[in-house]
Known about the structure:
This protein is α+β, with helices and mostly antiparallel strands. Helix content is 25%, strand content 44%. It starts with 16 loop residues before the first helix and ends with a strand.
Amino acid sequence: MASPERPPKGDVSIEPYGVKALSELYPRWAATGMVANLGTRLVEVKKGSVILEGNLTEEAHGFPTSRGMIVHGGAIATLADEALASAAFTLADEGETTTTADLKVDFYRPAKPGRLIARASVRHRTRRLAFCEASVEQEGGEVVAEARAVIAYVRS
């Protein structure tokens, strides 16, 4: 089955396939694998952007330091990656899925275990790639990391 045509630029009356599909699929994804491990939930979905929150615990995601437990950088990178790929997915056509082709994370400060918020958006999309950016914040708003990714669209 051919992919439906994209609405004309500027036509905001039609909800993109990816926005609708992500909202429907995410609860199932959140029940398994890495998404479940991070305790991630979808807070907001818009065309080209998402906000996710993760519950990163000391027991599952902690790393001991001389100053106490912090969240392991790999868990922060995973939360950012999930947000970046999800933001790109909001622009997917029916029959497409997303996969990370390149990921770069800059860590600014240690994160404390608890609720972390990832805000991601698509800066530019081509036919096969999305160039995305994200921030990861502590619950109080302090940015602990920023990430950029190239996300590829593949036929599912």
